[in-house]
Design a protein that fits this description.
Elements (H helix, E strand, L loop, with lengths): L5 H13 L20 H15 L9 H8 L3 H9 L2 H11 L5 H21 L16 H10 L2 H19 L14 H10 L10 H7 L7 E6 L5 H13 L2 E4 L4 E4 L6 E5 L4 H13 L4 H4 L8 H13 L4 E5 L5 H15 L3 E5 L5 H6 L7 H18 L3 E7 L20 H5 L3 E6 L3 H11 L8 E8 L7 E8 L4 E9 L22 H8 L5 H11 L11 H4 L3 H9 L3 H4 L2
Parallel strand pairs: 1-7, 1-8, 4-5, 4-6, 6-7
Antiparallel strand pairs: 2-3, 8-9, 9-10, 10-11
Helix pairs in contact: 1-2, 1-5, 1-6, 2-3, 3-5, 11-12, 15-17
Length: 568
Amino acid sequence: MIKIDRHTVIQILGGLMNRPDFLNDVDKYRFELSDFPTSLDKFIFSAINNLYNNGDGASNIRSIDIINYLKGNALAAELMEKENGEVYLQDCETAGEPANFNYYYNKFKKLNFLKDLQKNSGRDISDIYCEDILNPNYAEINERFEQMTVEDILNKLKMEINSYESKFVLKSVVEESKAVDGIEQLIIDLQQKPEIGCKLQGDIINSITRGGRKGKLYIRSAGSGVGKTRSMVGDACNIAYPIRFDRKKNKWVSTGSCEKVLYVMTEQDPDEIKTMILAYLTGYNEEIFLYGTYGEKEMPRIQQAIDIMKKYEGNMLFAHMPDPCASAVKNLFRRYNIQHGVENIFYDYIFSSPAMLNEYRDLKLREDVCLRLFTTTLKNLAVELNAFIMTSTQVSNDDDEKGGFRDFKNVQGSKAIVNLADFACVMSRPTKAELQELAGFSGSFSFVPNLVTDIYKNRRGRWNMVRVWSRNDLGCCRKEDLFVTTVDMKPIKEFQVIQFDSTAYGDFTELCDLYNEGIVSDGVYEEFYSASDIKPEDLVIDSAAAFEDDEDNKRRLSEKDFSDFLTF
């Protein structure tokens, strides 16, 4: 059985004697009595802990304080005398150096972890920590151990389990059959339940992808500021909430979907996403929330949006994961799928986090290979959980001026990432040259496109290597598809938009009517408004700023009646 060396224990006890306030930092340092190897060590730690927490929070605890405290316990006093405890305590007090406490604490916890592992599982831990000085690899093993954390050891064990799983758990079973087997039932099943998924934003994108299909992984790539996150939030809201406010019709309308969504954020905090959701539901530019310029005019609709979020609180779930890794993602997705019935997951976004690189460190893999393995995890989870998973990546460069069709060569990381996707695209801003080329037929549309989505992978889909031109309102996370072209900018006349069944999730007409008739009472409104302490102002923010449009688009915005984008 592994032994915890006396020097480490002395440094721990001595460090706590000289800096007992370490005990307050429970997020960093945690101790159990079982961590200490001998009964005397346990008594001494108990004395330090009790003297500090039950006393006046002394800045240090001396040997004499502990000796006097332990005299009150017959067994402790006997041990102190038998094991020369007074000298031992003086050694701890003298040797304990608070500046080195963090190092010895980590070593202390690692050794205790290995001790428990050895005791409970019987695993040979000599490849992690070696006590046999005659072992030819003694120095190498222990030098590596010095650099490891508890998390590193856990990851090593997880990799071992994964290797056993790959070796002994058959994941690919050969099933032999004839092509004709079950064909009649297949035709019946597809007619009764077509292979379509939940509605995303954009009629053209929905027609091309057949919506967000279960068991599939979609990857969307874009440069900074193009709208990856806002597009994901808009799609997530479109799936989660059955109604939203239509600014053209000036009323609440059905979205045609109502499913549970898990939104996993890696960069943003929850409040950032919440204001985007409010903007999406209300149709108000998010800037009025960020600047606090909403007033009496806007409050009824805002309160209605909040009411919708409360009514469907189980449909939009958050998880904040600033330092993700594959094992953590697996646990999270499986838990929400099993416990909450979530089948739609938005993961924003794939990047090489420290935890991910550390997870694969022992395999000595390149960064791009680590990203591929992580993406493989997402794809496998989509299949395992029969879930729709949408994620995003950065592009390798943000050169919007270059223009032209973008594909996997523009994706940051590696081609291997997008190889795993069922659907993959790159979003970018149209260049001036592209808009001029489109002018011949884009003039028939109300808006000038400010977003182009280049679709370069569409598994089991007819339309691939096409460009979808859209109007993306970053201010409220909404997108309207305008038209679709070939790679060389030619309109696709035979393209037909497929209308999804808007009643598949139920009829929300009555719910829309309730909100349109003013579901928020005057009393609720007045209470909410007065509590907000906002001075009503009729301030309209130019949404063109939110689009980051060029001057030509701003001119067209001012010349045309674009009420859908300018009314708040």
